[in-house]
Amino acid sequence: MESRKEDGVDEVTTQPTEPSPPAAADLLSGLCDDVLVHILGLARHARDAVRTGALSRRWRGLWRRAPALRFASRCWFKCGGSPHGFIAFVDDTLALHAVRSGDGGVLEQLVICLNMFDDACRNQQLVPPSIGAAERWILYAARHGVKSFHFNLSLPDDKVEVHVHDHEGENDDEDHEHDEVNGDDDVGRKRTPVLALNELPSSAKLEAMYLDLNFAWVRLPPTVVFASLKDLTLECTKVSGDNVLLLARLVSSACCPSLRKLSMCFITLSQQQNLLLEASVLTELSLDVMDGMRSLELKTPSLRVLRIEDCEHLQSLATSAPSLKKLHIKNCERLVSLMASAPMLEKLSCVKNRSLIIDRHFPSVSRLKLDLYSHGYAYDGDSNYGGIKLLQRHSSASCLSIDLHASMVRTWFTPSDPNN
């Protein structure tokens, strides 16, 4: 296993050697600290920044003041490192950087990609330490004033049985609920990992956060506040029970009063859920593959762009968005109700929503996109009703785009007489 003190390069002492041949002057080391620290913040991998401490006394410890650190497990594995060594290196590096946080070493950008799906580390025993590391690093970003945090988690193949221990034996009932949702058996059951973020602290400095959690169940904090968060992306996350309400709170003005851009993709809500989002300054919202979201209500007076795709359970959408300029709805085949107050809407795209009938007029629409189905297509004869209604209601649109779905019929002729 790799040493947990990769920072040891800062303590390197050299043995006396014969004078080296004359060389060009070291102009780089002559630069001021601020410039060198900025250069270290551009390193593609934190290990490269840490190793500069071995160059000379001039560089020793400077990396601890770098404004950005990036960790990529794939780069680590390519160099022969182990999964446990990578986790230890990230832990130690962050701990050492935190020591200098009060001396001009504030970490503005933190990027961590933990990919345990690599062929070299497809070991199910790596799941618990990976989940534990994910929890520590997310908490670190909130506690230490990180401005931009990007975290991507890829666990070993979930087709193999995974036995994940509880955190100190807590929330057994909630884990049992997760097992029921996933249809797990009592004997040799596969258990989806649980990421405990219910004690996530508030942060006044975090401005952008991206979390891809590999479809782990997540326990969300009930009272956290991110006063400066403007851009939030959540991907590959599962929530159940009260956590669905906490998810709605997490993306609301109560938690993120400055949130302007929100993207949620591959989110699983256990059973069928109604989601209410209230965000007073939110301007852009993107929802993709929100499994289990039966209805969506938006109270977003500043929203300008709304994009919804592949939400197969969505049946009802209600939005009060007087500033909405662009509305894109695609492949939501169960959506039958759209109640929208959008007097400023300019661009409307409605594709592959064959149950949706928009029987109202948006007076400002100038760009319209829809789809129509030719005779004999797989869908029934009423598939074009919604599209025709849109055309009739918005005949004054200056730009029209239509996706025409045509059936493909192949006729095979088999001669009865092989001599003919």
From TrEMBL:
<dbReference type="InterPro" id="IPR055312">
    <property type="entry name" value="FBL15-like"/>
</dbReference>
<dbReference type="InterPro" id="IPR036047">
    <property type="entry name" value="F-box-like_dom_sf"/>
</dbReference>
<protein>
    <submittedName>
        <fullName>Uncharacterized protein</fullName>
    </submittedName>
</protein>
<feature type="region of interest" description="Disordered">
    <location>
        <begin position="1"/>
        <end position="22"/>
    </location>
</feature>
<dbReference type="InterPro" id="IPR032675">
    <property type="entry name" value="LRR_dom_sf"/>
</dbReference>
<feature type="region of interest" description="Disordered">
    <location>
        <begin position="166"/>
        <end position="188"/>
    </location>
</feature>
<feature type="compositionally biased region" description="Basic and acidic residues">
    <location>
        <begin position="178"/>
        <end position="188"/>
    </location>
</feature>
